[in-house]
Every structure is written in C-alpha cells, then in structure tokens.
Amino acid sequence: MTRQEYTKRAQKNYYDRIRNDPVKWRLHLDKSRAYQQRRKERLKKEKEEQEKKDTEIKEKIDLEKKKEELQNLIDAGLIKINNNSIV
C-alpha cells in the first residue's frame, strides 16, 4: 500500500467514525468553518497589503517621471529657477 493510499484510507476511516457521532461532527464542522473564515480574512489582508505596495510603487514612478520632465524643461531653458521660485 502506498503512502497516498494509506492516507486516503485513514481519512475515510476518520470521517466515517466522526459522522456517526453528531457532537464530534458538529465540532469538526465548526473548526472547519473557523479555519475557512481565518483563511479568508488572511487572504483579504494580504491582498490589501499588496494593493497598498502597488500604489506606493506607482506613486514613486509617477514622481520620478514628473521630476524628469521638470528637469528636461529646466535643461531646455524653458523654466528658470531663482531663489526657489520658478520664473
């Protein structure tokens, strides 16, 4: 018997044994639902963090582009800066 077959048989025996006892089965379902809820919340939190990181990166890229465009205008002589003011 392979390891996979043994695991499958053990799981089947476990669930068959639990299903015959309503209290244990209910407890099993409650644990399963709690796990799924925690997993859902964790995934949601990770997604929000990833979106936050993505927006920060986009903002940095946009800022760099604006700096580059301003520097190009200054280099071209279209904008002059005197004492921290644009002329």
Note down, in words, how this protein is organized.
This protein is mainly α and 87 residues long. The protein contains 2 helices and 2 strands; from the N terminus they run ααββ. The protein has helices spanning 3-19, 22-76, and strands at residues 81-82, 85-86. It has a two-stranded antiparallel sheet with strand order 1-2. It is rod-shaped. The model has no long low-confidence stretch (mean pLDDT 89).
Which characteristics define this entry?
87 residues, mainly alpha, two-stranded antiparallel ribbon
Structural class: mainly alpha
Give the overall shape, derived from the CA principal axes: rod-shaped
Mean pLDDT: 89
Main beta-sheet strand count, sense and barrel state: 2 strands, antiparallel
What percentage of the residues does DSSP assign to strands (E)? Answer: under 5%
Helix content: over 70%
Terminal Cα span? 84 Å
* Computed Rg: 30 Å
Oligomer: single chain
Low-confidence stretches: none
Strand order of the largest sheet: 1-2
Give the number of DSSP strands: 2
Secondary-structure element string? HHEE
| Number of helical elements | 2
